[in-house]
């Protein structure tokens, strides 16, 4: 019975159906099914399939958003029930924000949702944030990664300012810097001294995993 429910959970994420995903995990909890099993054997398989379909060009941004939203909706039901040794393993903590002078929200939010769905703890500090705001959040959360989004050509230099401020705060050897956004390129990321670059939410997850692995 649980295998069938796990398959339905996977499909709810692939189809991008948040209400179905919520109903299924509530049903699973009523049946006494392990919340962690719902995540690992149902939801994770679904979000991985969504990522594959997006990477293959069979899914586009709307489907990616819907799949991530379905995953997030189910996690919000399950995670309060994950206690003690059952608690889902957190891969790392990521401070995420859009740099000063930039009000763009959607791309950053999608990256945050995908990181959360894939096992990261995400501290989203919002949009139009100065370098000092990022650094304060890094210190408060003891973050492993800081992700800075810039969607305007006029604001990408704020990513460089962030890195300089992280250095000045004495945190550069403690936190990895991940940058992204429409005008940002991999060569620019290298030029400003970032540790990683991602051009979409799926690649952000892959890069974040690599940065965590490299730090271990």
List the helices and strands and how they pair.
Blueprint (H helix, E strand, L loop, with lengths): L1 H14 L2 H13 L4 H21 L5 H18 L14 E7 L6 H12 L3 E9 L1 H11 L3 E5 L7 H12 L7 E5 L5 H7 L3 E3 L2 H15 L1
Parallel strand pairs: 1-2, 1-3, 3-4, 4-5
Describe this structure in words.
By secondary structure, this protein is of the alpha/beta class. It folds into 2 domains: 2-86, Orthogonal Bundle (Methyltransferase, Methionine Synthase (B12-binding Domains), Chain A, domain 1); 93-215, Rossmann fold, CATH 3.40.50. The protein is 57% helix and 13% strand. The protein is built from 9 helices and 5 strands, in the order H-H-H-H-E-H-E-H-E-H-E-H-E-H. The protein has helices spanning 2-15, 18-30, 35-55, 61-78, 106-117, 131-141, 157-168, 186-192, 201-215, and strands at residues 93-99, 121-129, 145-149, 176-180, 196-198. Helix 5 (106-117) links the parallel strand 1 and strand 2 (121-129). The protein starts with a helix and ends with a helix. 42% of the residues are buried.
- Helix vs. strand class: alpha/beta
Radius of gyration: 18 Å
Query: What gap, in angstroms, lies between the N and C termini?
Result: 39 Å
The fold-level CATH name of the largest domain is Rossmann fold
Instruction: Characterize the largest beta sheet: strand count, sense, and whether it forms a barrel.
Output: 5 strands, parallel
């Amino acid at each position: 019975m649980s295998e069938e429910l796990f398959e339905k959970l996977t499909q709810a994420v692939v189809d991008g159906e948040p209400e179905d995903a919520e109903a299924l995990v509530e049903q699973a909890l009523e049946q006494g099914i392990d919340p962690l099993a719902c995540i690992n054997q149902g939801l994770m398989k679904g979000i991985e399939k969504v990522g594959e379909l997006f990477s293959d060009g069979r899914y586009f941004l709307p489907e990616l958003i819907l799949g991530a939203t379905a995953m997030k909706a189910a996690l919000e039901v399950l995670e309060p029930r994950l206690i003690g040794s059952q608690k889902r393993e957190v891969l790392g903590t990521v401070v995420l924000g859009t740099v000063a002078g930039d009000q763009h929200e959607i791309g950053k939010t999608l990256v945050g949702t995908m990181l959360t769905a894939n096992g990261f703890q995400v501290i989203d500090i919002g949009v139009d944030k100065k370098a000092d705001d990022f650094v304060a959040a890094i210190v408060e959360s003891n973050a492993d990664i800081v992700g800075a989004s810039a969607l305007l050509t006029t604001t990408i230099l704020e990513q460089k300012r962030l890195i300089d401020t992280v250095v000045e705060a004495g945190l550069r050897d403690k936190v990895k810097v991940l940058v992204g956004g429409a005008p940002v390129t991999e060569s620019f990321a290298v030029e400003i001294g970032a540790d990683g670059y991602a051009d979409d939410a799926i690649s952000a997850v892959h890069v974040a995993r690599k940065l965590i692995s490299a730090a271990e």
